[in-house]
Amino acid sequence: MFPLIQRCCFNTSFRLQKLTAPRLLLCGRNETAWSSLSLWLQRDVCHLTRSPSLKPASVYSAQLQAFHTSHPVFKKKTPPESEAEAQKHKESLKDAPKPALYLSLGGLIPFVAVPLAMAIQGTYYPEAAFAQVTYGAVTASFLGGMRWGFALPENSPAKPDWLNLANGTIPPLLAWQALLFRDVTQGALMVVMALGIALHYDVALLPPYPRWFKILRVWGTVVMALSLLATLTVKLILEEQGREGKSKLQNRS
């Protein structure tokens, strides 16, 4: 850089000497010539120092920094989550209304009581098992009709279209089919299917439901399905034990 500056200054001074020599010979030692010469030298020197080719280092550093940094527009900005949405994600069963929570828990008692009583007494009661299947069919019909009640109001986010209303009739149809089976095993499995479909509708297809209600629906469906399956398990075990006892009595006789 310094050799370049010296070369430019040397060439400029040499040009000035060649251009100003005739003026000095013509004007002699006139003060006016010296003053004009000094002004002309100052103008050229300032023009040389202000040359656009000699930019300061700060300009180059700023350009390099702008080249290596991305524009703020292209940077991804994560939108801040609103307080209402954050509060919805934090909801749990504690935020559920007391009547809804207690009535739902009380509605699970008939499901749990049947297999528990048969397991404690060691006896299978077909009437109690059929009563449990019937209660499960009624519950599935109630959950299907609840979808109609959610879609019919004017301000509801769910429209009363063919999809919502037809999905509300599927659990009652499956529940009715469960009561037509003569075998309790087939009826219980059909009721479990109806409860699972109703849960899928309430959790996946209707997101405007409160979070506490979805959690309550999941846990309630799990308890109901496990209770029905527990009744079938107790039936198989006790029936197998009864067959073995009869066979032993026949062998002894």
Structural account:
The protein folds into two domains: 48 residues; 158 residues, no CATH class. The termini are far apart. With 253 residues, the protein is mainly alpha-helical. About 15% of the residues have low confidence. It has ten helices and no strands.
Work out the helix count: 10
Biggest sheet architecture: none
Could you say how many structural domains there are in total?
A: 2
Q: Return residue spans where pLDDT drops below 50 for at least 5 consecutive residues.
A: 12-31, 48-55, 66-76
Indicate the radius of gyration in whole angstroms. 46 Å
Give the rounded overall mean pLDDT.
76
Could you estimate the helical fraction of the residues in percent?
Answer: over 70%
Query: Strand portion, in percent?
Result: under 5%
Morphology call = elongated
Secondary structure class reads: mainly alpha
> Strand-and-helix sequence, N→C?
HHHHHHHHHH
- The number of E-state strands comes to 0
Measured between the Cα atoms of the first and last residue, the distance is 121 Å
Brief characterization of the structure:
The protein has 253 residues and is mainly alpha-helical. The protein is built from ten helices and no strands.
Please render the helix and strand layout as text.
Blueprint: H1 2-27, H2 31-49, H3 57-68, H4 83-89, H5 98-107, H6 109-121, H7 126-151, H8 162-180, H9 184-205, H10 211-252
Helix pairs in contact: 1-2, 6-7, 6-10, 7-8, 7-9, 7-10, 8-9, 9-10
Provide tags for this entry.
elongated, 253 residues, 77% helix
